[in-house]
Amino acid sequence: MASKYKMTGCAKFFIFLIIAVPLAYIGASYYNGADPFQKLKNIEIFKKDKATVDDTKNINAPIQNESTLKKELELKNEEIDFLKKKIKNLEGIIDAQKAEIEKLKKS
């Protein structure tokens, strides 16, 4: 009578990895807020020769209203001006503190 085959430790480890790695990937993807099955479907190997919805959506996307863009541009320019004034103010404070440090070193 022939003896039964025994699994080696290496074979057991590979079978464990075959089961554990996909489960870990799925768990990590869900934890990060992504859909792991959709990611797998988006792999180039599984894609067919049809155009996706995202490709056609970007081509036909409506242009934003010009007045909205102008308002956003004005807000950004105001923010830039505010930050420039703040930088000048802080540079003045730094210069004053450097002068005070030099004065204290001389005393």
What report would you give on this structure?
This protein has 107 residues and is an all-alpha fold. It folds into 2 domains: 9-48, no CATH class; 65-107. Helices cover 72% and strands 0% of the residues. The radius of gyration is 32 Å and the shape is elongated.
Summarize the topology:
Layout: H1 9-31, H2 36-41, H3 53-59, H4 66-106
Q: How would you summarize what this structure contains?
A:
The chain has helices at 9-31, 36-41, 53-59, 66-106.
Radius of gyration: 32 Å
How far apart are the first and last residues' alpha carbons, in Å? 102 Å
Poorly predicted tracts of residues? none
Beta percentage is under 5%
Mean pLDDT across all residues, rounded?
84
Q: Sketch the major β-sheet.
A: none
Q: Structural class per helix/strand content?
A: mainly alpha
- What is the number of helices? 4
Give helix and strand order, one letter per element, not per position. Answer: HHHH
Shape: elongated
- What is the total tally of β strands? 0
> Could you say how many structural domains there are in total?
2
Helix content, binned percent:
over 70%
